[in-house]
Amino acid sequence: MARLLVVDNEPDICALIARHLVRAGHEVLCAHEAATALAEVALHGPPDAAVLDVDMPGVDGYELLERLRTAHPRLPALFLTVLWGADVQTRTEDYDARYVAKPFTAAALCDAVADLLAQPGTPR
């Protein structure tokens, strides 16, 4: 299916996300911080989409997406966040991305990724 970059500063959460997405048939690159994520993309090439935790120390998910899109402007993104409300929705829309609130079910995560990958113009 798709090659996905998953970035979450909590290793257990990153592994859980990866496990769900691998079961759904995707290839997953995991990183726990922005620098590692950028290095993975430099080494392996751009993913088909990025799944990014919003609230990470140092570089947050929004800033990481900005950096990723410097080289890959059409990279689709799904933000994961414990936050909810108009601010999150507005910021997500500003990045032409989508979001799923934590905690989430495996089905909600996989459905959101499938919808993201089905967007017209998604590089594949």
From TrEMBL:
- Which positions bear 4-aspartylphosphate? 53
State whether keyword RNA-binding applies: no
Q: Which residues, if any, are the signal sequence? A: none
Question: Phosphoprotein among the record's keywords?
Answer: yes
Annotated PANTHER family: CHEY SUBFAMILY, STRESS RESPONSE REGULATOR PROTEIN 1
Sorted alphabetically, which Pfam families does this protein's record hold? Response_reg (PF00072)
Q: This protein is called what? A: Response regulatory domain-containing protein
Q: Which UniProt key words apply to this protein?
A: Phosphoprotein
Domain Response regulatory stretches: 3-117
Look up the domain of life of the source: Bacteria
Question: Which SUPFAM superfamilies does the record cross-reference, listed alphabetically?
Answer: CheY-like (SSF52172)
List the lineage, top down.
Bacteria, Bacillati, Actinomycetota, Actinomycetes, Micromonosporales
